[in-house]
């Protein structure tokens, strides 16, 4: 393999998706994004799929573009190359790929399952090894290890199979100053990713009922009961290893604060709101993201430092996503933890979930946070692959992974280099509006924008047609101005396009141009970029950042049309 790579052969990447968990559809979306953004003249992607029963298949790229696994599951035996066993699959990979990029979320993807198969056949792969995966993926085991490593953790109680002891759980409630009849807790499977089967319960009886429900659904036979963190703010942070080989040097990107938003009067269901599967992956106005978080800078620095330390202590590799909570005022529950990591003058930081294979949909946290510090989709994925190659002697000399990036614009303004080139056609992609199809418009526009960026002779600018009444104007949204000239269009930088709804895009535009917020973000971004450069400058395969994170520009629709004319831009209406 090393000879072939050095001799100019393309790097063969095996992209594996699917799996037995409820997140297999998300896995397919992640695989589609990876395929879109890494394939090129220097890199050949071969696609593989694991079904619910752990049968492996070689599939075509066309099948990766199916809407859901159900669209092609029933056709696999007739249309795909099947393997008689995982051993046969492993043997196939040895001769047909140079490195594997696992894109399986949840069971078999993040619990060490696929990694164990790859290790058995000495197939290089992206990400953490099987042993560290097993420990980090299990929420209860990971919590025990984090506590052992000196981190503050959320008090928890393990329920396993038929070993349910009601009196022991009651004692745990009392110990943690919770009413056994009504104390509020979170009940979740220990081995089902961060979004599946998570629910709120009140008291011992309700907790046992919810736990049994998780077990009966077949999600997991190990369930953990945790304190409900009242008054806390959830955050998530991408960690990128920029060290050399096995010399771990993790850098935490700009974390994201996850804010749940309640509409109108707050009922019991909204009081019990958690960041679940629906809020994470589907268009909704029930959640807002803030990158960086609206926390004190000392807290953000502590989150970055702690996540980096945790990445090292748990033996993680290449990249991961670490979720947690910031509690502005510590409660009695954590008063004995003042000497552990996470105790600050502003409150308590807790790390709760380790995601070994972060979601890689087009608008996922990985791409949101990476683009904020200078990485396009292609660049961050190729950087991850490049780092993984450096850990394997046969691939360490392969140094062209991130030097073959497709042509792309840096956002709403062309780069200096792009300005000097002739024959560049400008395209404005506009999406959004008022109709019930505005979220579909956002998805369509995002896809058009990302795909057009692959062409060297096109400079593409994404643009949002804001609702009829601009939220930033403070006007009554019920007063509709029939004059279309009052409409507002925003020219968007790369990172602000990557949202689930047009409302989110508009909100982050307004937030981004607030002077204090802009200065705060710029300061933190520079910190992260400096940390990244310190590690990445040692790698010959890293050729630099390709995204400039600029501020969004607000135009009246007439100003925007004039701008399009002045630039002789083609307008793509999405």
UniProtKB/TrEMBL annotation:
GO cellular component: chloroplast
Superkingdom per UniProt: Eukaryota
Single GO MF descriptor: D-alanine-D-alanine ligase activity
Short name of any one Pfam family annotated for the protein: Dala_Dala_lig_N
GO BP term, pick one: cell wall organization
Ranges of residues in domain ATP-grasp: 143-386
Keyword Ligase: yes
Record PROSITE patterns: ATP_GRASP
Signal peptide coordinates: none
Keywords for the protein's UniProt record, in alphabetical order: ATP-binding, Cell wall biogenesis/degradation, Ligase, Nucleotide-binding
Cross-referenced InterPro entries: ATP-grasp (IPR011761), ATP_grasp_subdomain_1 (IPR013815), Dala_Dala_lig_C (IPR011095), Dala_Dala_lig_N (IPR011127), PreATP-grasp_dom_sf (IPR016185)
Homology family: Belongs to the D-alanine--D-alanine ligase family.
Designated name of the protein: ATP-grasp domain-containing protein
